[in-house]
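Duplicate of #3305? Posting structure anyway:
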C-alpha cells in the first residue's frame, strides 16, 4: 500500500520515525516496508516526506493535491475564532446547499480517529420539511406519553416549553447533519470509540461552519429522543446499514454576536504541584 521511489528518497528517515506501527524500517539504503503488520493508512509518511518519494495506494482514498501544502493557522486568529464560536438557535429561513455541506464534510474527513479507523458516515437532512417533520413527531410523541410513565414529567416540561418556542426541538434549523457508523463496525470493544470519533468529526464541523457563514448547534434533543424512540428518526431516512450516533443543526444564523461572552477561568491542576491559583 506504500511505495518508495529509490531515486527520489534522500534517506532522511523521517518516514521511519513518524510511522506509528513501525512498519517502515530504516536500512542503509531506502527504507523497507514490513509486510506482517497491516498499514493503518494514516498517511503520515506521505505527509512528512520532503521529496514526495512516498506514494500511498490506499483503496478508495483520495490523495489531496500537492498544490495544497500543509499549514498551521495563526494562533491569535484561531484563538479568537474558537472564543467567538457560538451555538446558534436562531436560523434564517434559508436552505443550505448540499454543495456547501459537502465542502464542509470534505474537511471533516481529516478529523482524528481512533486507530485511524475513520468509521464516520454522514446523513444530510437539508430539506426543512423533513427537519420540521422530525420536530413535530417528537411533540406528538410527548403528547402520547401516559400518566405514570417514567418520561411523563420530562414530556410535560418539553410541551410547556414548546408553547413558548415555535420549534423547541430543532430551533427552526433548515438542515441537520447526522454522524453515523456502519452497524458492522459496532461491537462491545469499539462502540464508545465510534461515538467519540463521531463527536470529534462533528467538532470539526462546528468550528469550521462559521467560516462558511453558517451556524451550528449540537442537537442533544435529537440524540436523546431517538435513543428513547428510534421511530422518531424516520424523517431522516437513515440507511439500514448505519447507526445514528449524534446530530448537529446547521443553517444561516439570524443573529450576530458582537462580543466574546464571559467565562469562568480555566480550572487547572498540575501533576506534582496541585491546583494553579
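Output from current build:
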Amino acid at each position: 500500500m506504500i511505495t518508495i521511489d529509490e531515486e527520489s528518497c534522500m534517506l532522511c528517515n523521517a518516514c521511519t520515525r513518524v510511522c506509528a506501527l513501525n512498519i517502515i524500517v530504516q536500512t542503509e539504503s531506502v527504507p523497507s516496508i514490513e509486510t506482517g503488520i497491516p498499514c493503518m493508512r494514516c498517511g503520515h509518511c506521505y505527509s512528512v516526506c520532503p521529496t514526495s518519494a512516498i506514494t500511498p495506494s490506499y483503496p478508495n482514498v483520495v490523495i489531496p493535491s500537492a498544490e495544497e501544502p500543509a499549514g498551521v493557522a495563526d494562533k491569535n486568529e484561531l484563538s479568537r475564532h474558537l472564543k467567538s464560536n457560538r451555538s446558534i438557535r436562531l436560523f434564517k429561513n434559508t436552505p443550505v446547499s448540499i454543495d456547501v455541506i459537502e465542502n464542509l464534510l470534505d474537511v471533516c474527513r481529516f478529523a482524528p480517529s481512533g486507530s485511524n479507523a475513520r468509521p464516520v458516515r454522514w446523513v444530510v437532512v437539508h430539506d426543512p420539511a423533513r427537519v420540521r417533520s422530525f420536530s413535530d413527531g417528537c411533540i406528538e410523541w410527548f403528547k402520547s406519553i401516559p400518566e405514570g410513565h417514567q418520561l411523563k414529567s420530562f414530556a410535560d416540561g418539553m410541551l410547556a416549553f414548546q408553547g413558548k418556542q415555535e420549534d423547541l426541538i430543532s430551533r427552526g434549523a433548515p438542515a441537520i447533519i447526522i454522524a453515523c457508523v456502519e452497524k458492522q463496525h459496532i461491537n462491545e470493544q469499539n462502540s464508545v470509540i465510534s461515538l467519540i470519533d463521531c463527536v470529534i468529526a462533528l467538532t470539526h464541523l462546528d468550528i469550521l461552519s462559521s467560516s462558511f457563514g453558517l451556524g451550528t448547534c449540537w442537537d442533544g434533543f435529537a440524540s436523546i429522543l431517538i435513543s428513547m424512540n428510534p421511530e422518531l428518526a424516520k424523517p431522516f431516512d437513515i440507511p439500514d446499514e448505519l447507526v445514528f450516533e449524534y446530530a448537529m443543526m446547521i443553517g444561516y444564523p439570524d443573529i450576530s454576536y458582537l462580543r466574546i461572552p464571559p467565562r469562568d477561568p480555566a480550572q487547572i491542576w498540575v501533576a506534582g504541584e496541585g491546583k494553579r491559583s
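Confirmed duplicate; merging threads. The beta strands are 2-4, 24-25, 32-33, 54-56, 121-125, 175-182, 215-218, 242-251, 269-270, 274-275. The radius of gyration is 23 Å.
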